[in-house]
Amino acid sequence: MSKQMKIIILFILIWFGLPIIKNLYDSRVKTIDEAVDLNLDKVHMVEIIYNNQSKVIQDKENITELISFFRKY
Predict the structure, then answer these.
(1) Are residues 37 and 63 in the same domain?
(2) Transmembrane region positions (predicted)?
């Protein structure tokens, strides 16, 4: 096999391999912090809905406490 053919095959393998690797990386188990990307500067309100009942948290201190709780898990 010629050197040029080996380079072409290597390029094709990389071309089709990168999306597969990216998909595997994106579908791994993530922490809540990674999945939601919680940034305290941008969060102004948190709403939790459980059993069709809504709980809204707007106090910055309580939001900080909730986010620190999520980061532990």
Answers:
(1) yes
(2) 7-25
The CA dihedral of 28, 32, 33, 38, to the nearest 10 degrees, is 130
Q: Which run of H or E residues covers position 40?
A: none
Residue with token string 């390029």: 11
- Total structural domains within the chain: 2
**pTM of the full structure:** 0.48
Render the burial of 18-52: b for 16+ CB within 10 Å, e for the rest. eeeeeeeeeeeeeeeeeeeebeeeeeeeeeeeeee
pLDDT value of position 26: 77
